[in-house]
């Protein structure tokens, strides 16, 4: 079963997107559709066709966001989490070759590999939940088990950007 969890920052980002789409972007596109429709023959009016399609896409995304925001559960940091990896944690891992990577466990709606975010439903995240610094973690990946050591855990972002994806982590970060 997939988790319907999100960090407060992630929820706020989705809420901001919803408000922008509904209150700003959709009215702009609706106006463009009305202006294009006023030009007459809609069947050969590229402006009308394009903006009408865009309006349907916006409406679809708005419906999705409204429904999704209702079913998501915001998970805030709790002092009891300190020292262990739980939802929302940033952590640094190292493998036997000395490669270090930093990641954060988030919900699927926040997944962004460029920021080093991995989903709570990934094999890596599942293997790390409840672990602490100096623990060794074995992650089952399609290419076989991979070993990682936990160097750091925090509930605030790392200042420097060390996020990376050594080949051995690519299978398990998803």
TrEMBL record:
PROSITE patterns, alphabetized: GREAB_1
Transcription elongation factor GreA/GreB C-terminal domain span: 81-155
GO molecular function: translation elongation factor activity
Matching Gene3D superfamilies: Transcription elongation factor, GreA/GreB, C-terminal domain, Transcription elongation factor, GreA/GreB, N-terminal domain
Residue ranges of every copy of the Transcription elongation factor GreA/GreB N-terminal domain listed in the record: 5-74
InterPro entries: GreA/GreB_C_sf (IPR036953), TF_GreA/GreB_CS (IPR018151), Tscrpt_elong_fac_GreA/B (IPR028624), Tscrpt_elong_fac_GreA/B_C (IPR001437), Tscrpt_elong_fac_GreA/B_fam (IPR023459), Tscrpt_elong_fac_GreA/B_N (IPR022691), Tscrpt_elong_fac_GreA/B_N_sf (IPR036805), Tscrpt_elong_fac_GreB (IPR006358)
Record keywords: DNA-binding, Elongation factor, Protein biosynthesis, Transcription, Transcription regulation
Protein family according to the UniProt entry: Belongs to the GreA/GreB family. GreB subfamily.
Described function: Necessary for efficient RNA polymerase transcription elongation past template-encoded arresting sites. The arresting sites in DNA have the property of trapping a certain fraction of elongating RNA polymerases that pass through, resulting in locked ternary complexes. Cleavage of the nascent transcript by cleavage factors such as GreA or GreB allows the resumption of elongation from the new 3'terminus. GreB releases sequences of up to 9 nucleotides in length.
Protein name: Transcription elongation factor GreB
Organism the protein comes from: Shewanella morhuae
């Amino acid at each position: 079963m997939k988790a319907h969890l999100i960090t407060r920052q992630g929820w706020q980002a989705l809420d901001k997107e919803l408000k922008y789409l509904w209150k700003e972007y959709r009215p702009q596109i609706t106006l463009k559709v009305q202006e294009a429709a006023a030009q007459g023959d809609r069947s050969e009016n590229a402006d009308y066709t394009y903006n009408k399609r865009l309006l349907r896409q916006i409406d679809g995304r708005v419906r999705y966001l409204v429904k999704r925001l209702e079913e998501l559960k915001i998970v805030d940091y709790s002092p009891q989490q300190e020292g262990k990896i739980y939802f929302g944690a940033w952590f640094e891992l190292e493998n036997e070759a000395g490669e270090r990577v930093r990641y954060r466990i988030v919900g699927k709606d926040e997944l962004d590999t460029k920021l080093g975010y991995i989903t709570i439903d990934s094999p890596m995240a599942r293997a790390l939940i409840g672990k602490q610094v100096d623990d060794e973690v074995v992650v089952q990946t399609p290419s076989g088990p991979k070993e990682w050591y936990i160097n750091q855990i925090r509930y605030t972002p790392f200042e420097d950007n060390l996020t990376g994806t050594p080949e051995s982590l690519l299978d398990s970060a998803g």
